[in-house]
């Protein structure tokens, strides 16, 4: 039997665990730790919920005037490039 | 729905080829497709409307100028994210005097991840708040992170870039992304606990 991970070791692996990028052996160790340690269980659960709540965030619309100014700037840029390219020797 | 949604991503190489040849409509389509995401990203990093708009315009200007250098080795979106992140960080550096954190600050690896708030949350804590209230809570929590952590969190957990793409966009190592992401997630978790904790568990609430 391998020894139980410390809370610090658990936390260091938390991001990889949440992103499911740990190997099977480490995963088992981490899960053993959560079963034994209520604090780390809560941290895992609430961190998972933190990520979930941000992922579920409504994508904000870009203000119409910001989008309009962007399109104008892009059009100007493209027109300027075309003009420059159209001149021989430029 | 307009034809600018994610569904069109698969035909992007054709669009890019046309844009490279100078097809105005093709480049405009790419701008339309990603302007909202780039604006949001810039706003999250710069925390400022004017800066975010500048970043948005600069990003697409530069993308247009350098389109010939983009050979499809990464996704177009990842490529413009990298431009947008650089532009956003430049804005932050310019405002360094009123921001406290150097962007290249060295990072320790978690000695200070002491967790003060260990409280159970409600099952769906976000449902206790209106959409506006929730957006405010989430935005303020992200804003309060240091830029180094905020940038990584925004790219990984909001824009959903991979660890490698995030490392590439920020010009930092994969372990640095992971370490910053961990710190960001734990700090946010702690900040949100104040709003999302299960009320009945707070033994002091009724004293």
Short description:
The complex is a heterodimer of chains A (90) and B (207). With 90 residues, chain A is mainly alpha-helical. Helices cover 73% and strands 0% of the residues of chain A.
What are the SSEs and their pairings?
The complex is a heterodimer of chains A (90) and B (207).
Chain A: H1 7-18, H2 24-36, H3 38-55, H4 64-86
Helix pairs in contact in A: 2-3
Chain B: H1 12-20, H2 24-46, H3 49-65, H4 76-94, H5 131-143, H6 147-158, H7 163-170, H8 174-196
Helix pairs in contact in B: 1-2, 2-3, 2-4, 3-4, 4-7, 5-8, 6-8, 7-8
Give a structural overview:
The complex is a heterodimer of chains A (90) and B (207). In chain A, helix 2 crosses helix 3. By secondary structure, chain A is mainly α. Chain A starts with 6 loop residues before the first helix and ends with a helix. In chain B, helix 2 crosses helix 4 and helix 4 crosses helix 7. By secondary structure, chain B is an all-alpha fold. Chain B is elongated and about 65 Å long. The longest helix of chain B has 23 residues. Chain B contains 8 helices and no strands. At the A-B interface, helix 1, helix 3 and helix 4 of A face helix 2, helix 3, helix 5 and helix 8 of B.
State the share of residues found in helices of chain A, binned by percent: over 70%
**Beta strand count of chain A:** 0
Compute the CA-based radius of gyration of chain A.
Answer: 26 Å
How much strand of chain A?
under 5%
Low-pLDDT runs of chain B? 1-9, 101-111, 203-207
Mean pLDDT of chain A: 87
**How many H/I helical runs of chain A?**
4
